[in-house]
Every structure is written in C-alpha cells, then in structure tokens.
Amino acid sequence: MKMTRRDFLNVSTAAAVVCAATLLPVEKAAAAQQTLAAQNLLEQAYLYAFPLVIMDATRTASTNTRTATSNKAPINQFIHAEKLADATTRVVVTPNVDTIYTQAFLDVGAEPMIYGVPQTDRFFNVQVLDAWTNTAAVLETPGLYAITRADWQGELPEGVQRIDVPTTMVWTIARIVLSGQEDLPNVRAIQDKMQLMPLSAYQAGGWTAPAGSYDPANDFVPVKHVLAMDAKEFFDTANQLMETNPPAAADAPVLRELAALHVGPGEKFDDKALGLFSGLRWKLMLLQLKKKLQSESERYTRQMGQWIYFGDPIGNFGTAYTYRTMVALRGLGANTTDVAIYPKTDVDSTGTVLTGKKTYTLHIEADPPTLEKGFWSVTAYGESDFLIENPIDRYCVNDRSGLHRNPDGSIDITLSKEAPADTTNWLPVGEGDFHLFLRIYKPDAAALTDWQPPVVRTN
C-alpha cells in the first residue's frame, strides 16, 4: 500500500510524540543528575576553601588599625588583650574567658619572624596556625623561635629554633591563664617580656614597628562578612589567597575536581561555570550548610556523658575538609586535643534543650583531671555562639572562681537568667536558648576514661 504525504505526516507526528514521551523522562533525569552534580561540586569547593577565606577575613579585621591596641594591631605586631573577652567580643565565635590572649597575624613571605617566649609560672602557650587553620606548632618552652615558610632558605642565629609553616599567612595565639582581676598585672608582665620582630631586625639589634593602615570598610565581624559573600567574591578571594598560601600536596585530588569550577591557585573563577540559576543555587547551599556540617561531622564527635566534643584530627585536619570548615565556623583557632578539649551540651539530663526560661543545676561530682598547669571552666553562650550579656559580667565559672563546694567536694552551679540569693555559684544565662562549653586544658587523657562528667538537671 502506498503511503500518502498525509499518512507520512501522521505517522511521523505519532512517532515524535512517542519519542518525546520516551526521552523526556530520561532528559529530565539527566538534567536533574547534572544539577545535583553541580550542586555537590559547588558545596565541595566551598567547604574546601572556607577556612582559608575566614582566616583571611579575621586577619583583615584584626589588622585594620594604624597602631597596636588591645584588640587590633598591624601585621607582624602583637595584639595584647588587656582584659578577658566579654559580651561585646565579636571577632571570633565562642571566645574563652579563662585566658588573656596575645595574638599576632604574621606575613612570613619576605623573611622569618622571631618570636620570644618568656619564662612563666602558669599555663602559657603559643599556638601557631597556618592559613588553612591547621596547628603548625605549639610553643611552650621558653626561648626564641623563627616562624618561617617551610621553603625559606637561610641561616638562623645560634639558639633560635626554626618553626616551619607551609603558608605565608600565619596566626599566633598566645593564651595566658588568669586568676581573677587582681592577677592582671602579673599577666601584663608576661606580655611585656614577649618578643616579635623580623629576623633582619633581630640581627640588627632592634626594631621600630611601622604604622599600619585603617579602612572603615574592614570593620566587620569576620564570620558574617564571609557568609555574606556571593560566589564570585568568595572564590576570587580563595583563588588569590592560594597563590601565597598553597594547598597541601594531599589536596591534589580535590583540586583536580574543583578545576571544573576554576577554583584553585592560578585559576580565574567564572560564575557562569555554575550554570543557570547560579545565585539561587548558591543561596540554597548556604541555607543547607549548617545541617550538612552537623551531619557529616558527627563521626568526629566523642561522647562524654551528656556532653559531646570534637576529637582528632582537630587542629591537624588533613583532608577532613568538612570537619575543618565546621571547626572554623564554630570555633576558629581550636586547639589540638592534647592541649585542650571542648565538651559541649545544649540539653539537660533528659535531653530537653536548655533555655533561659528555666533554672538548672550543673552538678560537678569531681574536678576534670588535668596534667601540670592544666585547668577547667564552664562557659555559657547564646544561640549566636557569643557570650551572654548579664548584670555581673560573669561568663564562666572555673577552678579559680572561689566556688562553694559541697561537703563531699562536689560543686553545684546554678544556671538561670535571674540571680539566686547567693551568686557565688551562679552562671548567668539569657532568656533564650543557650549552650555550655566545658573547657579542659592539658587534659589527663588516661584519667578521663574513669571520670564522671558534670550533669545538668532542671530544678
């Protein structure tokens, strides 16, 4: 039978409909898979680069000044804090209120920086972090140290110990334990004995620190600043930083994948690589980030009664990129576990979320076991991860607080918004939800296994 033109068109149309019906789901599935792959790669790139970008933002805010003050200083100069952190402290989240900080952001691109650690009678150490938030060294022994990029070649003066850091940007955090306001002069005496200067200045016999610069645009809270970046600003910043703060050799596999987004040293990011709806995809990723970080970082948690803390490889993250970002977001500059652990709880003994609408008792059966010069504290934070404003400016209780002990040596701490009749053992909290950090510095790891952690009970 001969097929007419109309018959041919009818058959062709029917075939096209069948093909469309057959292929459309496949195309949709392929498009969905492609979108998911792009989203996953975008998240991977963000999680990889976030610690580097927030470290740089913290450096920018902390060095945004012409002269050194108690909370800012130009690059390569000390920021000697003159008091403990309080509710106005907004540079880093979850600041501790046990130690006086002396910080410095260093640029070791041109030459090493000489760091002098004095002799002390108390807990004192200097954490040396690279640009990716890894702990390169912890300085505790008195002496002179040359903090330098690992690829620097040169001779050091006799008696100066070399500390290699793989990046040009370095953050040093010295922590000096304080025992009450009356102890401040002793802490300041220690700060006065600390030294910091370029190697060439040390060899020349002295140094007059140059003036820095100030830009009102750089007066920002680092974490808020980074989270507000769009994709182009974020990855442009990351790519530029990677030029002088190179990724580790172990990062090569992930960088090969991120090259598809033009993320890496020497790359030029183009947000067109994100495809259609890139802005929406970026915002969606940021909204989902907190949940993703929490779920993927759970494998690094360690249980301690009703408390949870993050264990190794904290401070030396390797390729644990999600974990590294979670720590940078929640507690930038966290110590390695041999120096300190930070158990946290946001619930009472029944698993109910802690809130300032209730009153609680924190029962400490026995002091956390620590090694020589170790100490402990309990600090309250609001939902923002900052300290909670209160009428007596008390943000933590610790082993130096002069707490009343029960006849058996245990301690009961009142957690409430309103002050009890006796405020000696009172830790104020706000009216909203809050959480607690139990800091244990120089923990005795062997003894911790048999120690009974504190319990939070609703009154």
Automatic annotation (TrEMBL):
Keywords carried by this UniProt record: Signal
Keyword DNA-binding: no
Signal peptide: 1-31
InterPro entries membership: DUF1214, DUF1214_C_sf, DUF1254, DUF1254_sf, TAT_signal
A Pfam family that the UniProt record links to this protein: DUF1214
Domain DUF1254: 75-198
Domain spans labelled DUF1214: 340-444
Coiled coil: none
Name of the protein: DUF1254 domain-containing protein
Organism: Faecalibacterium intestinale
Species classification: Bacteria, Bacillati, Bacillota, Clostridia, Eubacteriales
